[in-house]
Give the backbone structure.
Amino acid sequence: MSRDPLRHIKPVVRSIAAYTLAAREAPVKINQNENPFDLPEALKRRVMEMALSRSWSRYPEFDPKELVEALATASGWRADGVLAGNGSNELIEALLLVTVGEGTKVVIPEPTFTLYALLTRILGGDVVKAPLGPDLEYDCAALLRLRREHAAPLTIVCSPNNPTGGMLTTAEVRALCEDGDGLVVIDEAYHEFSGESVVPLLSEYPNLVVLRTFSKAKALAGLRVGYLLASPELVREINKARLPYNINFISQLAAIAALEDRDALDGTVAELVSLRDALAARLADTPGVRVFPSRANFILIELSHADPKAVFESLYRDGVLVRDVTSYPRLGRCLRISVGSPDENARFLSGFARALEAAATLEKR
Ligand code: PMP
């Protein structure tokens, strides 16, 4: 008799690679699209004081009412259509748990954030890959065609897209929502940097779901808060797959405080957008570098001559950690650079120039 405990693991799970990130640290860490500007010290102290006045031996509220109300007010959508999660990752999972079973077709553009396809496969669903256009822009016609061809109950689009930076227009999201009744999930993790959102469409389309996070513009990645916006009927069902007490009370307090202190955060978003545009312009002036237009807080670049893995390692030796995305489909020559503080961006640019020079010297040998 076989004693291999792994035979009880679903074959599909055995066949896929985990979502991982190489455990590397560096003085200039621009590999995870985090906000380089931390929340104000005064806000952090206020949150910790509130946390100290609570009993840590008690569970948080069953339904985080105050947080949900604050999210509803901030996003302009009804509170009974809001679901808060331990990061938006958790809500992607909850949504897929209640929609995807054996053979469920899920249309997902490629390349994009890898978690959608990973969880879909674990749940037995079939990923229908929608290719991006020649310049890695979204191809809405392809999305519509595949959605129809497969009568797909679910389409998931990250807009702006991680890691390419492109977006669907509001008209394109409308077209998707109007084409059949399949759910259209728009992951707006980076929406603050684009200045656009499809939240106003929620009142028109009961098949639209919007995901958002506090991990990027809201500078709260360490405390794990995300939220989902949809019709109250959908939220009621997705909520069934949410784990009880999913957001600890310190994270709830911090998210509420971050929403109250919006002005400070809006300022950092505006600064990051101008830093992004300045960085993109500098990179576009660099021979052998193609820059893809980005509406997010990161920039995807393609290197025509230098080996991206060698450039990645050279930057790392210089204390700069970027994201190696060469394993993504179509991104074999690409790196993703998160926009950092002015000092971090300068250190990246000088390390990058050295890395390109070293690559050119190698080639001449
Ligand atoms: N969606 C996208 C597109 C992301 O890039 C990320 C994080 N990299 C997430 C969701 C997950 O965010 P959270 O920290 O809220 O789980």
In short: The mean pLDDT is 96. Residues 101 and 123 are 6 Å apart (CA to CA). The longest strand covers residues 105-110. The longest helix spans residues 262-284.
